[in-house]
Specification:
Blueprint: H1 9-35, H2 37-44, H3 50-66, H4 68-81, H5 84-102, H6 108-111, H7 114-142, H8 150-179, H9 181-188, H10 190-194, H11 196-207, H12 214-221, H13 229-234, H14 237-271, H15 277-291, H16 293-305, H17 307-332, E1 335-336, E2 339-343, H18 349-377, H19 383-399, H20 402-413, H21 421-437, H22 443-446
Antiparallel strand pairs: 1-2
Length: about 450
């Protein structure tokens, strides 16, 4: 039997570096918006009701996630018909243009209601691009990887979402530190968006040197390419069942775990604990920096003990621990967890770093192995399309709504812990479905060429 991967170690390193660098930059572009949601709310929505403006900004942020499945369908089809490399080159360019444009458009005081309309449009373009990027990069790396090491090598792609957020935090903190809080909130917030132009040019240059996936080329030369990837992915009952299992048994829970441990935690520190953007961002940044190597560790472990135990374990941890963790965050913020209306003492940053680090451990447990799991679930002819849709529905829709739904539940109920009920409910659903229906393929069969 022919080896599943004939890629040399040097070429594999180039593939991982180029794929990860481009995906990192796309995540950086995508997450700038979320990190600066409180600042953006001041510029693009009418002032007077701070919570309404913030919720509007979170809804715009979520719009980028909701449209990601459409990007998965569009670019997944391109990737399965034309090639993996072609699809994720196009997504990179779209993301770069949209992100730079966010830094250029006038605000509400200058052009009125047209400002939020343009902002939503650009956010939708970002979502379309992100919808096509991840599936291509994960598939491309997996199809170059040797049997038995796929979890390890694809885990480098998995670090890029967290590293993209970390890079966004670092740039924001650097710019704010250089300009001062007042100047940053007035006009300096545009600089991180404009810097994306330099990063995208860099990523395009390194990706342009890549060749197409060997498994894709072998499939094309053998005349086994899909005629209609969308129809074959979602009209075929057997494959449609796999798509639904991937969505409700893995990616929906992964999405809410990811966004609770990073974006909702950031929002909680700002809106509930009343920390300023600078302080909340460096607390989150340190926690992310400490936890990022765990994505690679859990990806490696998934090659040894399987993808399912780690993914289900991450869901169990989130389900059992979120409520006590957020009560502990309230205490670390200086408030009485049972009566959080009054701050008793100054926040303890070290305790907050630790509590967010624990949440990112849960993220790494499920997110580290999930790229390899999704790639191995679907046949090569329709892999880009089939894995992209459930990933972006789970991560983009279920996960992307977490900050908005969580903040809304807190505002509606007056209970500062109500926000974690949403991710806990989705994690429970995913745990039940995944625990009952996910079956792991043996490594030698998991990336079958036909």
């Amino acid at each position: 039997m022919r080896p599943m991967s004939e890629t040399s170690p040097a070429e594999l390193r180039r593939v991982i570096t180029a794929s990860s660098a481009g995906t990192l930059i796309e995540w950086y572009d995508f997450y700038l918006f979320g990190v600066m949601s409180t600042v953006i709310a001041q510029h693009f929505f009418p002032q007077g009701n701070e919570m309404a403006g913030y919720l509007n900004t979170l809804a715009t942020f979520a719009a980028g996630f909701i449209v990601r499945p459409f990007g998965a369908l569009v670019f997944g089809r391109v990737g399965d018909l034309v090639g993996r490399k072609h699809a994720f080159m196009v997504t990179l360019l779209i993301m770069g243009v949209a992100t730079v444009a966010v830094g250029l458009i006038p605000d509400y005081t200058q052009i009125g209601v047209l400002a939020p309309i343009l902002l939503v449009f650009l956010r939708l373009l970002q979502g379309l691009a992100m919808g096509g990027e991840y599936g291509g990069a994960a598939t491309y790396v997996a199809e170059h990887s040797p049997v038995g090491r796929r979890g390890f090598f694809t885990s480098f792609i998995q670090t890029t979402a967290t590293l993209g957020l970390l890079m966004a935090l670092a740039v924001i903190l650097g710019v704010q530190g250089a300009l001062g809080k007042e100047a940053f909130e007035e006009w300096g917030w545009r600089i991180p968006f404009l810097l994306s132009a330099i990063l995208v040019v860099f990523a395009v240059l390194i990706r342009s040197k890549l060749s197409e996936s060997p498994l894709f080329l072998r499939m094309k030369s053998g005349g086994k390419a899909a005629v209609n990837p969308l129809s074959e992915s979602f009209m075929n009952p057997a494959n449609r069942r796999l798509v639904l299992i991937a969505l409700f048994g893995a990616t929906a829970g992964q999405g809410v775990i990811w966004y609770t441990g990073q974006f909702y935690a950031h929002s909680f520190m700002i809106k509930t604990l009343k920390l300023d953007l600078f302080t909340a961002s460096w607390i989150l940044g340190i926690a992310l920096l400490l936890a990022t190597p765990l994505f690679i560790l859990f990806g490696h472990l998934s090659d040894r003990i399987g993808r399912k135990p780690l993914m289900m374990g991450g869901l169990v941890c989130g389900l059992l621990c979120y409520w006590p963790i957020y009560r502990a965050m309230m205490a670390a913020g200086g408030y009485d967890p049972a009566n959080p209306g009054t701050q008793l003492f100054a926040a303890d940053p070290k305790a907050l770093v630790f509590l967010i680090f624990i949440q990112v451990v849960f993220v790494a447990m499920i997110y580290g192995p999930i790229a390899a799991f999704l790639v191995e679930l679907f046949p090569v002819q329709i892999r880009y399309t089939s894995m992209s849709l459930p990933y972006h529905l789970g991560n983009g829709v279920f996960g992307g709504l977490t900050p908005f739904v969580g903040t809304y539940l807190v505002a509606k109920t007056g209970n500062p812990y109500a926000g974690v009920l949403y991710p806990m409910a989705i994690a429970l659903l995913t745990l039940v479905v995944g625990g009952l229906l996910i079956k792991e393929s043996p490594p030698e069969e998991a990336l079958a060429e036909a």
